[in-house]
């Protein structure tokens, strides 16, 4: 148990560090290269997520009787909506664009409906998160499917959005089971295994973001 807790503490620090590095490299990317469309705001998005996670993680240390779940619920909704908009903009097939727009609307509707029986002030999103994650992964698959059909497939690994997509897909494939079994583990004292896995997926995702920024920089240079 103690070894798990020690490992979790180390991994969470590494996860926060990876978030910080990805955000800083992304900020350099923003001011150094002319990214087009919503991707130019991706680094600002990463900075927001990093600051939100730091505040959320430390809230209970600063204010022992406070609840930080509302911060994560807000950031989750912003994340899904922002990413849906990105994939809607960067997919080219009309069918994919139409489905991603439907996904966005469906997520928003589900968020409001679930809000009638889930208190987002003291509960994490449950059904909206799982639905949003599934629909986002589907949107990413649409993007990858278009890459496979295109003549640019060999150049795709030099594209920033490719690495963002790889990172997000790995993260949410790991995150969905984490959220599904979270309620089961809520009746147990040992959350450490779940949070260890969550930290590992976070590190992998941010490593993909960093790789995308660096490879894109070399390509532009």
Task: Briefly characterize the structure.
The protein is mainly α. Helices cover 78% and strands 0% of the residues.
Mind explaining what this structure looks like?
The protein starts with a helix and ends with a helix. 27% of the residues are buried. It has helices at 2-32, 42-62, 69-90, 94-114, 127-149, 160-180, 182-185, 192-220. 78% of the residues lie in helices and 0% in strands. Helix 1 (2-32) runs antiparallel to helix 2 and helix 2 runs antiparallel to helix 3. It is globular. The protein is mostly helical.
List key phrases describing it.
221 residues; mainly alpha
Ordered list of secondary-structure elements with their pairings:
Elements: H1 2-32, H2 42-62, H3 69-90, H4 94-114, H5 127-149, H6 160-180, H7 182-185, H8 192-220
Helix pairs in contact: 1-2, 1-8, 2-3, 3-4, 3-5, 4-5, 5-6, 6-8
């Amino acid at each position: 148990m103690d070894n798990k807790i020690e490992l979790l503490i180390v991994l969470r620090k590494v996860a926060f560090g990876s978030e910080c590095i990805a955000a800083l490299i992304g900020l350099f990317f923003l001011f150094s290269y002319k990214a087009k469309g919503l991707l130019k705001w991706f680094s600002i998005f990463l900075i927001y997520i990093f600051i939100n996670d730091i505040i959320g993680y430390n809230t209970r240390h600063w204010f022992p009787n406070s609840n930080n779940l509302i911060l994560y619920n807000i950031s989750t909704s912003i994340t899904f909506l922002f990413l849906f908009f990105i994939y809607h903009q960067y997919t080219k097939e009309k069918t994919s664009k139409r489905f991603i727009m439907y996904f966005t609307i469906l997520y928003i509707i589900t968020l409001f409906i679930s809000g009638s029986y889930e208190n987002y002030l003291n509960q994490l999103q449950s059904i909206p998160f799982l639905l949003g994650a599934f629909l986002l992964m589907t949107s990413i698959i649409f993007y990858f499917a278009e890459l496979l059909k295109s003549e640019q497939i060999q150049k795709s690994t030099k594209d920033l959005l490719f690495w963002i997509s790889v990172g997000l897909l790995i993260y949410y494939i790991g995150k969905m089971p984490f959220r599904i079994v979270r309620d089961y583990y809520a009746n147990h004292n040992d959350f450490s295994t779940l949070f260890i896995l969550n930290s590992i997926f976070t590190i992998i995702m941010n490593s993909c973001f960093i790789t995308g920024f660096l490879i894109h920089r070399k390509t532009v240079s």
